[in-house]
Amino acid sequence: MISTVPVSEGTRVFLNFSVSLDDGSEVDTNFGGDSVNFVVGDGSLLPGFERLLFGMSPGERQMFVVPPEDAFGQPNDNNVQYLPRDQFEDDVELEIGLVFSFADASGGEVPGMIIAFDDDEVTVDFNHPLSGRTILFDVQIHRVEPAELH
């Protein structure tokens, strides 16, 4: 028997998706491949994307336009940092658009993109690369089942 449970809290969702920018350029997709699955609320999908799926049923496909506030947020000026050039190895070729991994306060790693540099200072943008962008989220739901509670 095929489940007709819609996507809601406490469900595991099997889906294919694509994420594109509003200019049509594709960022990520798994159409043409196996579906992925997640449990609603497990953190694998941004809350703004997850809410869009609520009420969808197996077999449904929809295209959503997700504003920056519900996707990757707006760029924050506080996420642009100015670092002394001598914090970078002398043999590192700096280029605009180059992404480096930096240690954060908790010992984790956070990516930052070089947006400007000179002999004294390097400007690094720690905003998500898709911040400020409207996202096109194309989703096809294959299966929805109750999530097993562990």
Give an overview of the whole structure.
The protein is mainly beta and 150 residues long. Helices cover 5% and strands 41% of the residues. The strands form two sheets. Strands 1, 2, 3, 4 and 9 form a five-stranded antiparallel β-sheet that branches. A hairpin with a 3-residue loop joins strand 7 (109-117) and strand 8. The mean pLDDT is 93.
Number of domain modules: 2
Unreliable stretches? none
Mean pLDDT, to the nearest integer, reads 93
Regarding quaternary structure, what we see is single chain
- Indicate the overall shape: elongated
The SSE string, one letter per element, is EEEHEEEEEE
Q: Please name the CATH architecture of the largest domain.
A: Roll
Instruction: Tell me the number of strands.
Output: 9
End-to-end distance, in Å? 24 Å
Radius of gyration: 20 Å
The CATH topology name of the largest domain reads Chitinase A, domain 3
Largest sheet: 5 strands, antiparallel
| Structural class determined from secondary elements | mainly beta
Count of separate DSSP helical elements: 1
- The helical percent reads under 10%
Strand content: 35-45%
CATH top level class name of the largest domain: Alpha Beta
